[in-house]
Amino acid sequence: MITKQALSQILGVEDDAELAREFGFILALPDQVAEEIERYADPEHDDVNVLLQWEGPVKRALDQCWAFTSSIQGPQSHFSKADIVALQACSPILSRARIEPRIEQETLDSLRQSVNEFYEEVIDATGLPPELLSFLLDQLDLIRRALREYAVRGAEALNEALDQSVGALWRHARAGDLGTAAPEAGSPLGRFNRILVQIAAITGVAAGILALPGQVQEAQGVIQEWVSDTSTSETSAGEGDPSEGSSTSSN
Length: 251
What we know:
This protein has helices spanning 3-11, 16-40, 48-51, 55-65, 73-76, 81-97, 105-124, 130-153, 155-175, 188-203, 214-239, 242-250. By secondary structure, it is mostly helical.
């Protein structure tokens, strides 16, 4: 198998442009890992030189991967099992440092399923205003790509998609492209808002958004208001009209 085919399968990409983008993130990983290991390793218990023995071999392997038409055996020949063991030994140190939240695979799968199902429903929907349709598809594409990139970029990819979507929501809402009324719980925009809140919850950035510039605070307020409105609507629908219940009992 050639390198291009192997990487495409591993990363789950669908075209060359996407492969090139994600491979760029992979090329940056060795330096990122080495920097964090040097920062967070315990000098009394961790031998940084041993922990980073994989760095040179892995970088040489990635350099050879640039030739996407070469055999996958070529890059693999640059590193040994000992290098892989050393790389794996870096994981506990990075985990202890809590550089980013750890998201369970089940949680990711649930989010991915929700996003993909909603994406297909939006595509098949009829009667959506063109501006709303374009907005939803563009933002859902960003989130789907972030989910694909999670294996390489971690929570950073989801945080980036969240930042972009919240910013786009604020911009389009201010322009009046998405309507002015709070969306109903089952409406397309209401469901999209819930996906944003779900991403914020699993990446642990919901509270941090409040520290961002005023425009984003305003967008967060819009999201929270909509979620509150839709939650109230769902509760009211489930409980029914209390006056009707009283009338029935009196009869």
